[in-house]
Specification:
binds S-adenosylmethionine; 29% helix; two-stranded antiparallel ribbon; single chain; 6 helices; 9 strands; 217 residues
Length: 217
């Protein structure tokens, strides 16, 4: 297993990133503290480590990306995580977002369709010492055996809100999902008000890799 080093340079860059996120409007102190704690550069190949604290998405293989730190912070803030929340993430990717959620003491379930990414992500989650339940498959179908979830986070761009996922949201639960076309998506929060009533709030524009699956692209 790789022995990762958190140099003063990286610690400083991470602190600076947290300041930038604050300036861009992230105000949830718990989210900012989690970003300030998790070493994002551990998720990068050593050659590209110097890019880890730029507020940018970065390739992780299989044509996928580790999301931009602002996007991770923005989506996490919208989820309003309380300790013990049962959270389903669709799109494990690098595992970075899983670590942020686990640091906020959420009970995390995460689905990734690329096995190669999931293997690496699981190693990272283990390295950080968190426990996350993972599954390789089509996340648009959710995780029926574990539903309902207090929070659902989709980290890939969807053409529509998958009905199957919405049905797996607990009453009072929140789903955060980017919805749009291949070029750009609007961040949407869905709050489940009752067994039949869902309240939708449409927020700002983002650009994600596509959500591929039965209820995706
Ligand atoms: N949350 C990730 C992180 O912290 O690194 C970043 C996610 S990346 C922007 C989107 C991920 O969603 C990709 O890894 C992609 O393979 C995955 N994905 C796309 N469609 C999916 C689906 N139907 N089910 C599960 N994963 C999916």
């Amino acid at each position: 297993m790789t022995n990762y080093i958190d140099s003063y340079k990286n610690k400083g860059a991470r602190k600076k990133l947290v300041g930038e996120l604050r300036e861009k409007g992230i105000h949830d102190e718990q989210v900012l503290a989690a970003i300030g704690k998790i070493q994002r550069h551990y998720f990068f190949n050593k050659t590209f480590e110097s890019h880890a604290y730029e507020d940018k998405a970065f390739p992780i293989g299989e044509g996928q990306t580790i999301s931009q730190p602002y996007t991770v912070a923005y989506q996490t803030q919208l989820l309003q995580i309380s300790p013990g929340d049962k959270v389903l993430e669709i799109g494990t990717g690098s595992g970075y977002q899983c670590c942020i959620l686990a640091e906020l003491k959420a009970n995390v379930y995460s689905i990734e369709r690329h096995d190669a990414l999931l293997i690496k992500a699981k190693e990272m989650i283990q390295y950080f010492g968190y426990h996350v339940n993972t599954l390789c498959g089509d996340g648009t179908k959710g995780w029926p055996a574990e539903a309902p979830f207090d929070k659902i986070l989709v980290t890939a761009g969807a053409p529509v809100i998958p009905k199957t996922l919405a049905a797996q949201l607990a009453i009072g639960g929140i789903m955060v999902i980017p919805v749009g076309d291949e070029k750009s998506q609007k961040m949407i929060t869905v709050v489940r008000k009752s067994s039949t009533k869902f309240e939708k709030i449409v927020l700002s524009d983002f650009k994600f890799v596509p959500l591929i699956g039965a209820e995706g692209w």
